[in-house]
Amino acid sequence: MNLFVKKNLEQLLQEAESKELKRSIGKWALVALGIGAIIGAGLFVRTAAASAESAGAAVTISFIVAAVGCALAGLCYAEFASMIPIAGSAYTYSYATMGEFVAWFIGWDLVLEYALGAATVSIAWSEYLNKLLKSVAGWEIPYEWCHSPFQSDNGVHGIMNIPALFIIFLLTLILIRGVSESATVNGIIVIIKVAIVILFIALGWSYINPVNHTPYMIPEGTAGHEGFFEHGWGGILAGAGTVFFAFIGFDAVSTAAQETKDPKRDMPFGILVSLAICTVLYILFAHVLTGVANYTEFEKAGKEASVAYAIETYMTKYSWLALFVTIAILAGFSSVILVMLLGQSRVFFSMSKDGLVPPIFSKVHPVYQTPYKSNQIFFVFVGLFAAFIPGDVVGDMTSIGTLFAFVLVCIGVIIMRKTDPNTPRPFKTPFSPVVPILGALVCLAMIIGLGAENWIRLIVWMLIGLVVYFAYGRHHSKLQNQKVA
């Protein structure tokens, strides 16, 4: 048995011609899909968290560092997506460049980003729904029906998080119905939340107080910020690892390659344009937020409510905007969950076609041409986490899992240039191998900034994956069985 057996590029291109999944997505729908996945609550929550904990007003630089890492990785994703336009994203690219064993780990790793990420976001969606209900109707969902059994408040214990389960169920139904329908719903949500982000930037600009941007970085010796990653440039790097969560999602665009009308042309466009648009909005948003309110206030106000706090405290003329921000956060959560569930089902669709996970994950609906069984299974899996597990269980594991995938995609581009130099590349990563090497290094630096605790969690998750691979994957691998035959 060869653990590092690679998938033949010709075989991958033949799979790309398969009509199992319906090709119905155009390039602007891909851009909307990318923005839908990228702009979520991460922008509203993580900006304040990174600013208060480590970066101060220089969180704008943290966004630039994170954006550089994402852009470098995005260029590598774009090359692979144009070369190998099939579902599977980083999993498929790794299979062609570094072999089955590495590909398995990437596929398993992406469960952290997509499935568990969707569960975490759905729990936060439930919390913000309650905030909206309280501000609009003066009524809240009873505590026991919007929290897990492991949570309690004033003697009241949670039973089940019904709103979190509901949003997972609703979005799963949309995904089963068809990817074009999903793209339409996502497009509407994108328009709503981008409009509200632009509105905050435009209205908040005149409320910027230059004093809040001085000093720009948290000075050394500031109380509560003694560690290297809590002030100065170290704080900016840690902040980049924190706000990186707000960029997660552009890679999910590549999981829809097999359902794109012209993937060789449209995939690079969708990945890079969505990333560019979001980066500009992020930097402007962070600049305005840290200018309207001082970073020291975010810890007191509560990171999740910091944007609403800044509006209600300093932009009193526009207090109605705080309600709109809550709506934007709910919309942002919804589209992030939608794209994460889409990405997870497509990754396992590819893994199932290769025999590494059971064939039920690649069962396609006879009418809608979607992997509906995979959607149903992940509804149960994600729904169990959403309904019965607290939202802070996963934490930064989503970010570290994604960064790990980015590192391997960057390395994969260098390997593929050596092993298959003559393969047509509709889009080529510029200045290779410099760009892929820098992409891998920047992403590794952000992983270091996330701390040893998250490394341990990642290693434990990968060890579980190791057991699953040797218990099932290697015995059912179609490529391994071909080699044996």
From TrEMBL:
<feature type="transmembrane region" description="Helical">
    <location>
        <begin position="158"/>
        <end position="176"/>
    </location>
</feature>
<feature type="transmembrane region" description="Helical">
    <location>
        <begin position="400"/>
        <end position="417"/>
    </location>
</feature>
<keyword id="KW-0472">Membrane</keyword>
<dbReference type="GO" id="GO:0016020">
    <property type="term" value="C:membrane"/>
</dbReference>
<feature type="transmembrane region" description="Helical">
    <location>
        <begin position="429"/>
        <end position="449"/>
    </location>
</feature>
<keyword id="KW-0813">Transport</keyword>
<dbReference type="InterPro" id="IPR002293">
    <property type="entry name" value="AA/rel_permease1"/>
</dbReference>
<feature type="transmembrane region" description="Helical">
    <location>
        <begin position="377"/>
        <end position="394"/>
    </location>
</feature>
<feature type="transmembrane region" description="Helical">
    <location>
        <begin position="269"/>
        <end position="289"/>
    </location>
</feature>
<feature type="transmembrane region" description="Helical">
    <location>
        <begin position="55"/>
        <end position="80"/>
    </location>
</feature>
<feature type="transmembrane region" description="Helical">
    <location>
        <begin position="236"/>
        <end position="257"/>
    </location>
</feature>
<feature type="transmembrane region" description="Helical">
    <location>
        <begin position="188"/>
        <end position="208"/>
    </location>
</feature>
<feature type="transmembrane region" description="Helical">
    <location>
        <begin position="455"/>
        <end position="472"/>
    </location>
</feature>
<keyword id="KW-1133">Transmembrane helix</keyword>
<keyword id="KW-0812">Transmembrane</keyword>
<protein>
    <submittedName>
        <fullName>Amino acid permease</fullName>
    </submittedName>
</protein>
<feature type="transmembrane region" description="Helical">
    <location>
        <begin position="320"/>
        <end position="343"/>
    </location>
</feature>
<dbReference type="Pfam" id="PF13520">
    <property type="entry name" value="AA_permease_2"/>
</dbReference>
<feature type="transmembrane region" description="Helical">
    <location>
        <begin position="28"/>
        <end position="49"/>
    </location>
</feature>
<dbReference type="GO" id="GO:0015171">
    <property type="term" value="F:amino acid transmembrane transporter activity"/>
</dbReference>
